[in-house]
Design goal:
Blueprint: H1 16-32, H2 36-50, H3 52-59, H4 65-89, H5 94-112, H6 119-139, H7 144-172, H8 177-202, H9 206-223, H10 232-254
Helix pairs in contact: 1-2, 1-6, 1-7, 1-10, 2-4, 2-6, 3-4, 5-6, 6-7, 7-8, 8-9, 9-10
Length: 255
């Protein structure tokens, strides 16, 4: 008997980093401005996130009725929660989403075409996901400047983590020295940008601001440490733990 819906594992993206791209902005946005509208928006985003694999299969002419039904179901769920968000908060939450829509389309196109995931594609995806933090802040009654700060820091932190991981993987895959040097430059640029903007915008926030600035410098020093082979599972748990601490510190600095 054919399946009504595909196995759940076929809907779950294999890339652990994509879960960070979604989870961190959603958690940050809700912590900054908790609201029922924010919960609905987060659930809509999760539904669209899970609908990405079946959408990719459909656009690549892979005919699978179960995947099509999953796409329609997830799209319907996203639509319902999107409408609930609209009813609870009004249309202003759509402003941040409209601003990051071109970045989301750029990243989605690369994903559908199975293009090589260059840093530009990954940064575009990170910035588009960070738009969820901004939208949830607005949906919870926050101002557009507050939403802009949430987007900026979610994007910069995500970008700094991306270049750190890419440098780490470059050593693991024994890339050429020239490519490794280029990746080290990007580590310097994005981590210093994160720390510098944190000083400019958050130094006046007292102890929470100082703790966050110190954390960005700690992340920078961590990213510059000599490469040492580490099991993927250990690396994942370590990065996940650091992300949780960073989420708490950034929340306290921005609130």
């Amino acid at each position: 008997m054919p399946r009504l819906l595909p196995p759940l594992r076929s809907l779950l993206p294999a890339e652990h980093g994509s879960w960070f791209m979604l989870g961190f902005p959603v958690a940050l946005g809700w912590l900054l401005r908790p609201s029922l509208a924010g919960v609905c928006l987060g659930l809509a985003a999760l539904s669209l996130f899970l609908g990405r694999p079946p959408l990719r299969r459909l656009l690549n002419q892979q005919k699978d009725p179960a995947q099509l039904r999953a796409l329609l179901l997830l799209g319907g769920i996203a639509g319902v929660f999107g409408i609930l968000t609209l009813l609870l908060s009004g249309v202003r939450y759509l402003i941040p989403l409209a601003c990051v829509a071109p970045l989301a389309l750029f990243a989605l196109r690369a994903d559908v075409e199975r293009a090589v995931r260059t840093l530009s594609v990954e940064l575009a995806a990170q910035a588009s996901f960070a738009g969820l933090a901004a939208a949830m802040v607005v949906a919870g009654g926050g101002t557009l400047p507050q939403a802009g700060r949430a987007w900026l820091f979610a994007t910069l932190l995500g970008g700094a983590n991306l270049v750190h991981v890419r440098r780490f993987l470059g050593y693991a895959h024994h890339l050429e020295a020239q490519e490794l040097a280029r990746r080290r430059v990007l580590v310097h640029v994005l981590h210093l940008l994160l720390a510098g903007i944190s000083v400019v915008l958050l130094a006046t926030r007292g102890l929470p601001g100082m703790l966050w600035i110190g954390w960005t410098l700690l992340l920078y020093s961590r990213a510059l440490m000599p490469y040492r082979p580490i099991p993927a599972r250990t690396l994942g748990w370590r990065e996940g733990g650091l992300s949780a601490v960073g989420l708490f510190l950034l929340w306290r600095a921005l609130v």
